[in-house]
Design brief:
alpha+beta, SH3 type barrels, four-stranded antiparallel β-sheet, three-stranded antiparallel β-sheet
Length: about 170
């Protein structure tokens, strides 16, 4: 029974193969569309071919690569810091390294620091105040101001950096 089944499949495959090879030879219609091989081919109407001119002006060059060498060499890493789109105003315009601590004052339980920028203009700092792009004033002590900068990476890690602004004594 199994042998008869194999013979049937083989015969079917041979019939399909013969049909594929013999079909073009059995076609009676030639290329020009006439069915009578003794009749001369009909003349085709003359087609008007238009000349095509490619206008490069205002079009991009199709052969320029999509990725430039400069963009291809930039590797985005998981440890890259994500820059936040925050409008910088007030003390956020100054990075802690641009300021000089001039004085520290105590008013009851509150501490206030006085700083100067490079032009000599003075500012007052309080604990908890944002400073720079990522910093917050965490502590004001007797002779220093501690700023903690927090940054986030693409991998979701949080990086902290502590910056201390010290009071310059006379002669320093």
């Amino acid at each position: 029974m199994q042998c008869i089944h194999k013979i049937n499949i083989l015969c079917f495959a041979l019939l399909i193969a013969a049909g594929l090879f013999l079909a073009p030879a059995l076609a009676t219609e030639n290329v020009t569309g006439t069915t009578d091989p003794g009749q001369p081919p009909a003349e085709e109407p003359e087609q008007t071919l238009q000349k095509f001119d490619y206008q490069l002006e205002g079009r991009p060059d199709p052969f320029t690569p999509f990725i430039s060498d400069k963009a291809a060499t930039r590797i985005i890493g998981a440890d890259d810091i994500i820059e936040e789109d925050v409008e910088l105003t007030g003390m956020r315009l100054f990075e802690p390294g641009q300021l000089t601590l001039v004085a520290v004052m105590y008013t009851g339980d509150r501490r206030i620091a006085m700083v100067e920028d490079v032009t000599g203009k003075g500012y007052i700092l309080n604990e908890g105040m944002p400073i720079g792009r990522r910093g917050i004033i965490s502590r004001i002590d007797g002779e220093q101001v501690t700023v903690i900068e927090t940054a986030h990476t693409r991998a979701g890690r949080e990086l902290e950096n502590t910056i201390v602004i010290r009071l310059n004594k006379e002669g320093d």
